[in-house]
What we know:
Elements: H1 2-10, H2 18-37, H3 39-52
Amino acid sequence: MLLYQGKIATDRLAGIREGTVIAALLVGFIARFIGKKLAFLKDMIFMMRRLSR
């Protein structure tokens, strides 16, 4: 929301530079990588819930 308000106030994007974009991309790649490595946990958690019912 603040980003959008900045766009209205100055008629340009302020505060978003190369570092912000690179950081966002890196976080996305890292999160996807970790999510794939830990995908087995979802099966284990939901299996335990089914067994406890």
